[in-house]
Amino acid sequence: MRVHFPENNIYFVTNRCLQERFFFLPKPGIVKIIGAWLAKALKEYGDGIELYGFIFLSSHFHFLLRDTKGQLAQFMWYFQLNVGKAISRELGRRGYFFSREYDAAPVLTNEDFEDRYAYLLTNAVKAGLVAKAGQAPFFSSLEAALENKTLRFVWLDRTKKHNKSRRGQKVKDASFEEVNEIALAIPPMWKELTSRKRKARIEALIKANEVRYGKQRRAERCEQARTATQRASSRDRPPVAVAVAFAVQRQLPLPAFEDRPGREPNLAQRSEESIAGREE
């Protein structure tokens, strides 16, 4: 078990599924499992854990939190162990769930915190999965942060239920359920702000990242198009065939296209030769 020193450190925590497989797909059953075990972990080992934000994409998750009492290692051990078992049971699989130990990167400044916070909430936008953070179907703290909501999940004590039903007794799940909460903490640099100003700050951070990631995606698409154009020849592009077919059909002069040295005659030349052969 890892040990973190109780120095009121804020951490950006990350872990990935084995082989980056999609164990955290945003299906209702999977989301309920994640929420139930995250809330249970906060109840059992969350003393001293201030959770500011989280997101579960299909293959990995991020937490942004403060560890005030050195409980992070126990908290992560309990959560990862149980959520991995529960989702594996749901998916009908066995074996390792996570690819490695979690990463816990210290967040040292207010600027770094806001960068990580915005990155977390717009992670799906950066990945190119959606254009707006609110469009992402993944389980995250976005709605709870904007609406100042507490999330509640039902956790089923499967051990007690199993022990009661071992002798064939019929039992109801409701007898072994408990409701636990995920309550987001207010980041230390925003504690003096009203709820309305905190919401405005979160929306501004999200908007800035959405614009930045949108520009990056457009630049990447332009670069991809430029590279594809440079690599292509006149014979490789569908518009060439379309232009030749249109010219043949309308009995117009065939378009002239330069071809690369050492290649066979291009489509326009081959079409011109076939037409000349038919005329002869």
Strand order of the largest sheet: 4-1-3-2-5
The CATH superfamily name of the largest domain is: Transposase IS200-like
Domains (count) = 2
- N-to-C CA distance: 86 Å
Q: Which spans have pLDDT < 50 for at least 5 consecutive residues?
A: 257-280
* CATH arch. level architecture of the largest domain: 2-Layer Sandwich
Shape summary? globular
- Secondary-structure element series: EHEEHEHHEHEHEHHH
Task: State the oligomer.
Answer: single chain
Strand content: 15-25%
Structural class computed from helices and strand pairing: alpha+beta
CATH fold topology of the largest domain: Alpha-Beta Plaits
**Average residue-wise pLDDT:** 84
CATH class of the largest domain: Alpha Beta
Can you describe this structure?
- The chain is an alpha+beta fold and about 280 residues long.
- It contains nine helices and seven strands; from the N terminus they run βαββαβααβαβαβααα.
- Strands 4-1-3-2-5 form a five-stranded antiparallel beta sheet, sandwiched between helices. A two-stranded antiparallel sheet has the order 6-7.
- The longest helix is centred in the last third of the chain and has 37 residues, at about 195-230.
- It is globular and about 85 Å long.
- It starts with 8 loop residues before the first strand and ends with a helix.
- Mean pLDDT is about 85; it is low at about 255-280.
Give the structure's gist in a few sentences.
47% of the residues lie in helices and 15% in strands. By secondary structure, it is of the alpha+beta class.
